[in-house]
Amino acid sequence: MRVLIIEDNPDIAANLGDYLEDHGHTVDFAGDGVTGLHLAVVNDFDCIVLDLALPGMDGLEVCRKLRSEAGKDTPILMLTARDRLEDKLAGFETGADDYLVKPFELQEVEARLKVLAGRGRRRSPRELKVGDLVYNLDTLSVRHGDKEIYLNPIGLKLLQCLMEASPNVVSRADLEMEVWGEEMPDSDSLRVHIHSLRSAIDKPFGTNMIQTRHGIGYRLVDPDAVSAPA
After folding, report:
1. Which residues contact 20 (CB under 8 A, 6 or more apart)?
2. Confidence tier at 229 by pLDDT (50, 70, 90)
3. What is the pTM for the complete model shown?
4. Using one digit for the tens of pLDDT, what is the confidence trace for 102-119?
5. Domains of the chain
6. For 138-182, how does the pLDDT look when each residue is reduced to its tens digit (9 = 90+)?
């Protein structure tokens, strides 16, 4: 695991860091909230150990900014002397994944971090995103903004191909090969399925994401980022 320890007590940070490194993990350190937030935003850690009583910016604010402003979902273990229920609830409300009160056993910290790191890897979805259109490749679900869109298997294959290539044009031949393989359909099949896809993706929302390049193929674009004729 790659772990970030945000802790202003140098003895606690050193003891925990030494233990984790001795057990094969990579550890980075921050002694204040501002530095810790910066490191957490610009790097990819498997998990974060976060103290609450930090100089510059307390741990609750670090956690809140990391979740709501930076959009980072790195698992966070809050490690603090604050043992009141209110403090624990505040930690979870700001986005902490686990909460451990000092004093603690180093072995337990490592065990909790391993669990959190595993959860973090499992919860990261494989998604394609173009503008407000999101396709989750794990659940095969499609959303346009807050609305879920239901597509048949051919529609899903076409959408994936177009989103992966976006904003580039995908030729008719490539789309047909992606969907039907060597068993090519009749000449109108692709046009019919593209029409159905447009009816689901564009028509209800008044958008023009799926665009035709006559004689070439199709492309899918973010209408807010690209203005091009269909």
Report:
1. 1, 3, 27, 110, 113
2. very low
3. 0.54
4. 888 999 999 999 998 887
5. 2-123 (3.40.50.2300), 127-220 (1.10.10.10)
6. 788 999 988 999 999 999 999 999 999 999 999 999 998 888 887
